[in-house]
Amino acid sequence: MGIPAALITQGRVKAVNYPASKYGIEVGLNWRYAKQLCPELIPLEPDPARSARAFSTLVEVVSELMPQVETIRPGMLWAPASAPAKWIGGEEDLRRTLIENLAEATGISAQIGICDGPLGAPWAAREERIVATQKVSAYLAEKPLKPLLKHAGFYTRQTEGLLSEWEDLGLIKCLDLQSLPVETLYNRYGPEGKKLWLLAKGMEIPNRLPKTKQTKIVEELSFETPVNNLETLLFATRPLAERFEKRNHHYGYLLERLKIIAVTPSGSQHEAYWSLYGPADTKAIIQRLRWQLEAWLQGQKILDFREGISTLILENPETDRGKENPPTLWGKDSNQDRQTAQAIRKTAELIGPERILKPKYVGGYDPRQAVLLEPMIARGTALQTGPGKTAFEIKTQKDRAKTMSEKPIFPKWPGSLKEIDGTWPALVYEPPIPVGIYSETETAVSINALGEFSQTPVKLKILPGEQALLGKEILGRSTLILPTELTPWLIWGQWWNPENNLYGPRAYLKIPRENQSDILLCYRKGKWTLEATYEN
Questions:
Q1: Each residue of 316-343: pLDDT tens digit?
Q2: What angle do helix axes 157-168 and 145-152 make, rounded to 10 degrees?
Q3: Coil, helix or strand for 267?
Q4: Strands annotated E in 157-266
Q5: Cis omega (within 30 of 0) for bond into 431
Q6: Could you tell me which residue ranges the UmuC domain spans (predicted)?
Q7: Which of 47, 209, 448, 475 has a CB 3.0–4.6 Å from the CB of 322, allowing a cystine?
Q8: Strand segments (E) across 256-395
Q9: CA distances from 74 to 21, 57, 103, 289, 512 (A)
Q10: Is residue 396 pLDDT above 60, yes or no?
Q11: Which of 406, 413, 418 is nearest to 520 (CA)?
Q12: DSSP helix/strand/coil, 155
């Protein structure tokens, strides 16, 4: 309502409203110094219940006019404005209606702005203005990047390191980034550099997920007795958040939005969406859970939760749009390629590029023969350095395809192991892990020159040795019962070279495993080894 106020914790400013920010008061300032800057400043003590009540009401009021409301943090929301603005008569009418509705419901004067881009919209709200689409870039140009990122919730440890380096280079304002080619920032700083360039330009961060149908990631926690105590709920939900984070990480999903669902004993269901720009770890998930549970249990909907919560559900709503490709030994690029390339560049600058090896597909009958390791940069190669140049270049699969368009990247090898089901293993073990294949009578099973088993294989055992522990970890046990109807794949290889143990006559056996990664075995010179695992 135009009165400068600040939330004070342990003698320092923890939050500040817009009227107070006009006096130069920022988060982290000493209270006494802030009072000197603005003698009329009103100090407020932390009141979680008050914040939760106001926040819960704010979400409900905005949701009545605007769909797809997402919470950045308590007290800050964003939502698409174009469709509601057309329906209500214009952006100014939408803004005025929201202000009036919020003032009537909560008694506070909300700061509302309309602007394209996740960086411009929060700052436009802080300044209570509407920015035309064609003027967003100019609106952000003269503003320092750091306070914009902090205000919008994009300021992370990784971002802090980049901004510190950029400040030394004189890149402080959004205009400084806007004037640079995005390729330059991407080549030097990877996806994070490109993301900050897009934000500084006032653009949306594009969805990095390919549109493929995938299984949803959902974790659920049910209580035998409904719970309505906040601290009890938070204590019980830590394992839920940990499981949820691990599942997203295991499947390679990006966790940028979090959907929280609460079910009451009567069967009513309440849900909320939260943005997770930054480290989406267990701590961040629990923090959003705390904020949302405070809003539900202490806010305007307190009567809806008087019986407590019987079930809590966490969901990643982005998984219906796809996931990152699983890492493979070779083949098509995964979404991790670019981050890996950036890390390789930095490592090469420390130890020398000739000491970094890269896999090269040369073709062959089996995964060990088909890929060779070669230096990424040959010894003696002249490396160019200087402004705008990197020490060396790492080409992506797309770049390589351009230079190799006249010949196939992956030549065909008739009779190769890949013909079993059209795929190569994802992980090859070096050296291979010794195992034994046995019949029902505990007799060792071998394969003859015709590719036939000496006896019906029944079980696989990890043999004692240095790699026994790794083998048990891969299988999850020391003994594995084999499925029936297994067929070996015979490869004669270099039969004329008896000294060549790896590429001589051998046979392969792919073992399917339900709900686990398939494994690949090799029979060579009378011995069995565990060669590789597949990505299921």
A1: 886 544 434 344 444 444 445 555 666 7
A2: 170
A3: coil
A4: 218-227, 257-263
A5: yes
A6: 1-72
A7: 209
A8: 257-263, 269-275, 309-315, 357-361, 371-375
A9: 19, 11, 17, 11, 49
A10: no
A11: 418
A12: coil
Residue-wise pLDDT tens digits, 345-356: 667 767 776 777
Q: Tell me the CATH number for domain 218-321.
A: 3.30.1490.100
Task: Write the burial class of residue 136 (CB in 10 Å: 0-12 exposed, 13-18 middle, 19+ buried).
Answer: buried
Confidence band of 284 (pLDDT split at 50, 70, 90): confident
Helices (H), 107-181: 120-127, 136-141, 145-152, 157-168, 174-178
Secondary-structure percent of the chain, ordered helix, strand, coil, rounded to 5? 40, 20, 40
What is the residue extent of each domain of the chain?
1-46, 218-321, 337-403, 425-533
Distances (CA, A) of 51 to 13, 46, 272, 306: 16, 8, 17, 19
CA distances from 31 to 46, 165, 233 (A): 14, 30, 34
More confident residue, 385 or 370: 370
- Say yes or no to pLDDT of 299 above 60: yes
pLDDT score of 496: 56
Distance CA 10, CA 45 (A): 10
Can you state the angle between helices 230-251 and 282-298, rounded to 10 degrees? 140
| pLDDT (0 to 100) of residue 388 | 34
Residue 409 has pLDDT above 70, yes or no: no
Render pLDDT for 78-104 as a digit per residue (tens, 0 to 9): 788 888 888 888 888 888 888 888 777
* Across 24-33, 374-383, 484-493, least confident range: 374-383
Task: Report the C-alpha gap between 327 and 108 in whole angstroms.
Answer: 50
Which amino acid is residue 153, in one-letter code? G
CA distances from residue 84 to 72, 80, 176 in whole angstroms, order as listed: 20, 8, 34
Q: What is the CATH number of domain 1-46?
A: 3.40.1170.60
Joined together, the tokens standing for residue 51 give: 């914040």
DSSP character string of 369-387 = HHEEEEESS-TT-----BT
